[in-house]
Amino acid sequence: MKALLRIAGLHVHYGAIEAVKGINLTLHQGRITTLLGANGAGKSTTLLTISGVLKASAGSIHFDGMEVHRLPPHRIVAHGIVQVPEGREILTTLTVRENLLLGAYRRHRHKTEIAADLENVLGLFPRLKERLDGAAGNLSGGEQQMLAIARALMARPRLLLLDEPSMGLAPLLVQEIFRTLRKLNERGLTIFLVEQNVRQALKIADDAYILENGKTVLSGPSAEMLNNPRIIQAYLGG
User: Fold this and answer.
1) What's the per-residue H, E or C state across 119-142?
2) Hey, what CATH class is 32-55+70-194 in?
3) Of 2, 21, 107, 136, which one has the greatest count of Cβ atoms within 10 A?
4) Which residues lie across from 67 on neighbouring strands?
5) Where does 85-167 show beta strands of DSSP type E?
6) How do the pLDDT tens digits run along the chain, 238 residues long?
7) Where are the domains of the chain?
């Protein structure tokens, strides 16, 4: 398997507070990897550092062999790493269509490609097609999450980072979101998933890492994690 993303010895600080303490991660191309842990373990910090929103204090991040941890966020997006942030962060006063087109801002000259991509994401999320010219702020929570994912797809990612996509959603909508993620992965998209629903994350993912207090304490195939007594006790209500 090809290693698409490698993180080595990553440290990240918020002022004097060290949030990530020397972690090592490898994401393989074409697979779903999940990063799990309690609140404050450093999961979101890790994603934001990959995206360039936060800067590493030490360590390195390589994407497809290229060093990316010193690049600004827009350059990282141009290389194919795109994040769906926690809380969705859609632009509520703009229409659904305008939000989607903003996802393709760096390709604004390629209008034919963008039109085709728009049709593709609307095929994945038919509810958005029905509300295409309505204000994004009028969407339900589940529809807003669909919009956030669809907007990220408009950037044509090679690696999709997702931070808590099920947060605040009803169980049926969570199932719909995760079915779509599996479909995207089956089409070849590599996914790095931070998720509070540990059981659901382990079921959909191929590989898993567990963070505690900014350090990796467990890693391995997700199927094995589902049967690990430590994971069952800490996260699955065993």
Assistant:
1) HHHHHHCHHHHHCCCCEHHHCCHH
2) alpha beta
3) 136
4) 62
5) 159-163
6) 899 999 999 999 999 999 999 999 999 999 999 999 999 999 999 999 999 999 999 999 999 999 999 999 999 999 999 999 998 899 999 999 999 999 998 877 778 999 999 999 999 999 999 999 999 999 999 999 999 999 999 999 999 999 999 998 888 999 999 999 999 999 999 999 999 889 999 999 999 999 999 999 999 999 999 988 888 888 876 5
7) 32-55+70-194
